[in-house]
Predict the 3D structure of the following.
Amino acid sequence: MREFREWGHKLIDWVADYLDSPGAYPVLSGVQPNDIINALPPRGPDSGEPMEQIFADFERIILPGITHWNHPDFLAYFAITASPPAILAELLATALNANGILWKTSPAVTELEIVTVGWLRDWFGLPHDWFGMIHDTASTSTLHALAAARAYTVPELRDEGAPRNLIVYCSEQAHSSIEKGAMALGFGRKNVRKIGTDAEFRMRPELLAEQIVADRAAGLIPCCIVATVGTTSTTSIDPVPAIAAIANRENIWLHVDAAYAGSAAVVPEFHWLLDGVGLANSLVFNPHKWLLVPVDCSILYTRDRAALRQAFSLIPEYLETADSGLNLMDYGIPLGRRFRALKLWFVLRYYGRDGLADIIRKQVAMAREFYLRIEADARFEISAPSPLSVVCFRLRGSDEANRELLDRINGTRRFFVSHTVLNGKFVLHVAIGNLWTAQANIDELWRLVNSSI
Ligand code: PLP
């Protein structure tokens, strides 16, 4: 343990320095495909190597191949944070290596998950009887929601298999994980209806209602509607109350994908984001997107716990137990269960609801300020409303000019900004979400944008 202790101290110091001086690293890695593979031996070592050598290679070979998601100048996709308390919790979770396959294989793994997920459920104002559990990603959570929707619609499918005419609905702006989940579960891509959106990229409920009528008339079975609160491209917010009214009237499972925007519901002023969600059947949101929890951590809530259980519970003899503890393996695909709740618990306690709300509020204010700068400058156009911490904009001009602008920004490797396509046009997408992004970073980005035109 002497070596472990020595290296533990060294590496904690290294991590503290890393988080303290992000400017020491370009945000974007400069390596070419296969550089890392070619720099490493083709065969694993036959005998163990000293930590000095392993760590030296980490710094020499691995670090240059890292794009620094935990960097304040990372402004692409949805920016994220591994916050210090969560990093420490991950260390503890790994040291314990508790695998919550059953309640009894580590009661605290299951029970802390129930408690933390419950705290967030209450902060969000979701009904008390909603059941929640942690998955790795929103893609996995949504796949489970689709499976639950299918079990709800066709309870006998556990044994008989699913009919081929089950239909899933989402907007044309919904994340690809919905279509992917439908592919994986055998709904089939052609049974995913992408409902049109309005000028602000929100699902149009009247088109949804019409499509459901048409599908029923064609003998198909509407199975699941997915509404998005905070779409990937623009953070648009589908009208959940109107969609929920249709889902409830038609008795169709409604899943809400709030993977990114859900975190903002801890801020009292943003509580409205979850309007109507209490009428849905399930909700996913990712603490690993905007709630300071490192990848991975996604929470799936449902009011229909029985449907999840119907879809997934299968208990082999060796996992039978006599206790009354909750076995989360009954509600999803994985048996093995990482202790993800520990990092979530550390974050919720260290920052508290008010602390988290302040951080999100400041990030939304920075995005607002950036939006106003763009809006006031005749060289640019705003491409979508910016209700949260993402700004979509473009130079007035060709897609080519916008691509070049993005290449020049990212070519510096100082900032990482991403893109999307809206109404057929190439658009820059700036996302503020890292704990350490400050106004000075955004000012610097603005200078870079100006000097890159
Ligand atoms: N849903 C939305 C709205 C997203 O923006 C994303 C990813 O950005 C996902 C789902 C998928 O998230 P994950 O990477 O956790 O699977």
Observations:
- The two ends are 56 Å apart (CA to CA).
